[in-house]
């Protein structure tokens, strides 16, 4: 029978694991991304295994079954990312089969050694393969799983106090969860799905040289032409591996408008900037996002995109439709100050900014000239 000082941290480890399973399930409900669902159920069985091991004698079959089901789901989640679900399922099924054979033909210590190394090692290798094939940020997940591998090996060979093992396991799982909930990792889930469905971009983002700041002037009543122009722009971006983010002020353009022109939502991230939204912006969690009519939130959005672009070395283009409406709502001075403050950040990243502008809607003609001087290029839609 385990002592209290051993039971308490093990219970805490189990509770944290199941709590993380619930949090991952909540993320799945918001974004409907299968990866989070598979890892949620995987964490649940993983946590159940920890609970059951507290009461059953060493070598019992039930904890082993729960652990293998959990790891099968986690490995399948990785398979969803790399498009190798069948291979991962076969691999997952082969692990318990091989271990059963080992348990019959070898010493119990060897069996425990394999349980402590192989599943964690496979998950770590799977994440390293994804990182090697794609310029993505997976360091926190890899570090977390390597810590779990280390502490489980230490437990089997009695190299670390059991309580320390449980505490280190809790820390590792929190590191993994933090890595999975960053906007960049959420965007990774979408990017890899798109890569598997659509294949590689025909050319790379750095081949298509865009100006950092472009002003698109138009006249009122040309919405159909403007949407068609944007559709062509976004599709051209997609062919060059450039991510497009459309910021629609006050629902001037809706996702339905874009779909009716033949633009699929797989090529564009759509940000609705509307009055009354109180939630904080969650960049890249979904293809359609909503932020409040607040230049501070727009600032955060731009910063997230610039950071993503620098870290992932992927070009992005922000399309603002339209900057004239922001000026009418917030005043030209505030919008002008905001634009000036963001231009250095944009020029130092792989981000380009494209703003629609309607000179004939502004009573003071000097407003147009101020923003035109900031632009690297001006395009007119007639």
Please tell me about this protein's structure.
The protein is an alpha/beta fold and 382 residues long. The protein has two domains: 4-187, no CATH class; 213-380, Rossmann fold (3-Layer(aba) Sandwich). 65% of the residues lie in helices and 11% in strands. The protein has 14 helices and seven strands. It has a seven-stranded parallel beta sheet. It is elongated. The protein starts with a helix and ends with a strand. Mean pLDDT is 76; it is low at 193-209.
What is the topological layout?
Blueprint: H1 4-31, H2 34-55, H3 61-82, H4 85-105, H5 108-133, H6 139-156, H7 162-181, H8 183-198, E1 213-217, H9 223-239, E2 243-249, H10 255-260, E3 268-274, E4 288-292, H11 295-312, E5 316-321, H12 323-330, H13 332-347, E6 351-357, H14 365-374, E7 377-380
Parallel strand pairs: 1-6, 1-7, 2-3, 2-5, 3-4, 5-6
Helix pairs in contact: 1-2, 1-7, 2-3, 3-4, 3-5, 4-5, 5-6, 6-7, 11-13, 12-13
| End-to-end gap | 81 Å
Strand content: 5-15%
Question: Into how many domains do the coordinates divide?
Answer: 2
- Morphology call: elongated
Radius of gyration: 26 Å
The helicity comes to 55-70%
Largest sheet: 7 strands, parallel
Q: Would you report the number of β strands?
A: 7
Average of per-residue pLDDT values? 76
Strand order of the largest sheet: 4-3-2-5-6-1-7
Output the helix-strand order.
Answer: HHHHHHHHEHEHEEHEHHEHE
Q: Can you count the helices?
A: 14
Unreliable sequence segments: 193-209
Structural class: alpha/beta
